[in-house]
Amino acid sequence: MVMSEMQNDIRETALYREAEALYESVRQPGSGQISDATEIHVAPGGKHAVFSGGLVDKLHDAPPTRICQIELATGETRVVTYGPNADRSPRYSPDGQYIAFLSDRATKGDFQLYLLNPNTGVARATPLVEGWVEYLHWSPDGKRILLAVAGHGADVSSHQGGVTRKQVPTDVPPWIPTIETDESFRWRRAWIYELFTNTSHQVNAPLANIWEAAWCGNDAIVAVVSPGPGEGLWYGARLHLIDTRTGQSRALYEPADQLGWPAASPSGNHVAVVEAVCSDRWIVAGDLKVIEASSGRVQNIDTRGVDITYTEWRSDSVLLVAGHRGFETVTGLYDLSCGAFAERWISRDITSVGRYISVSAFNESGDFVLIGENFTRAPEVAVVRGGEYKTARSFNVGYAEAAKVIGAVEAVTWNAPDGLAIQGWLITPNAKPPYPLIVNVHGGPIWQWRPSCLGRSAVPMLMLLGRGYAVLFPNPRGSSGRGQAFARRVIGDMGGAETTDHLSGIDHLVARGIVDSEQVGITGVSHGGYMSSWLIAHRHLAAAVPVSPVNNWVTEYLLSNVPDWPRLFLKDSYCDPTGHYFERSPIMHAHKVDTPTLNICGALDRSTPPEEASQFHNALLKNGGHSVLVTYPEEGHGVRKFPAMIDLAARMVGWFEEHIRKVPSAVG
Prior knowledge:
CATH superfamily of the domain at 399-548 and 597-661: Alpha/Beta hydrolase fold, catalytic domain
Mean pLDDT: 94
């Protein structure tokens, strides 16, 4: 059987049925049980919390969420909204009388603001805004809600799927052309909802595209802004203060790198923000800055090596922060009055759900709630008091059983050829070494692997662990959690020294007798897809599955919605045929590749357009390579919807089995 003749419909194959059954076991569709959770927020007084709970009706489309409420002392949990589409981002009002949340129940994908009375359970819509709401914040006095509104036609960030929202949310005949003129419909604006008049209005700041914002007192917002709406402009965004009454905007801070997680003290006197070199919007982990709003004076806060990923003011002088340091997830308090930073909770075992850690605080002492998880632990609501972690409610509906294929989890460290220490997580199966190995490369390159539940998009890894494979999740140079100097090692050298970080990790495991050197495969999404294509041009591996990759930096620069990303990380010009845009493109090295390669992409991807995967596929074929290209017509950046996620799991496992273990594929 030749894999180049891979079937397009594999739903009746054994591997597809196995992947489907595994997803059913960890999600329990139709059972009414909560199987996942995100976006937790604690009520005033700390008795209850609300969160977005994953309740899957059937394995179709993106997993929906509902607003759920938990009594933290008992763990008693109830679902308080019922869609029919997605309800998310719940936030208690400062007095606890309302729960504000976002829902697309009226028009799918068009999220609007709703208010829920937690006593009666009645939810009501608020006036529609012109666009879709990305997130919300209550004002300190509880009289207003800040709404971050993206215009219809704006792109979502790469970590959200990298697709373009429909400019007009109506159906039109399929032959109608798309038109590109200016980008006025893509702008992100700030809107204000007035609780007592039940009205909404746009903040009049016409020259500010607002990427991220928070209240600064009751009449101003602090915002990360750019002069236009293009995704690439985020990389040069600045921090502004905007008067919500007049729209007057004042520059507060101009960073050298990128900004995220702005938050202001209740009075608006001080602003916290994180500055870091970044590869993706919303993926910000770095240095904490505290800025005096009146003068613009900037304090650089020493957080003891923690890359900060979350900020929350608990009073005018106490700031709760959270982030990552090496293998550790850390929370701490910064006291403005004395300039001291104190760690409150550290764990190498538990981290939180989401792109990085996020929490919700009870008080000024650093106690908080979070959604905790790790490789063997299902998502759970946990309470941390006095640094002690306690589970309030687990959402294990089958993951613990599925995770029994995990024999051991090890935090591993090895040295790259230049002597730099590289970290990663190694998961081994219930078998004796040496194992076949899958190297799973993370995206970014600025991001990190940490101990997360594998029951979401990593189900293929569970299937492979069950077959006796080990899985390495490396955090090479450029990864978060090791400080900005470590992250900067990839700037201007993408595809350079990080190449040997991965290859030396494989060599380290082979030298320890853990891995069979002839049975190594590689996969990854986004930058991980790029590295999957790139590494096989530098070493023969048994099999590769690049997902949503970059394979030609010239076309990535010209076709993607983030041209500033390759410009930042390659530090070169796409016009130079001898420079990094050409030399670091996998298509230019396709003639060296003898690794069987399964290329995966989404037809709607704006971050790494599908042409990236097809170019490498065609280059491999023209050079006599073994390649298959799989394009999912309804997916963007990464595969995020059912049943395509099931299909991907089956194809990936089948590819690795056939070319690593030489097991005839069940999906051919």
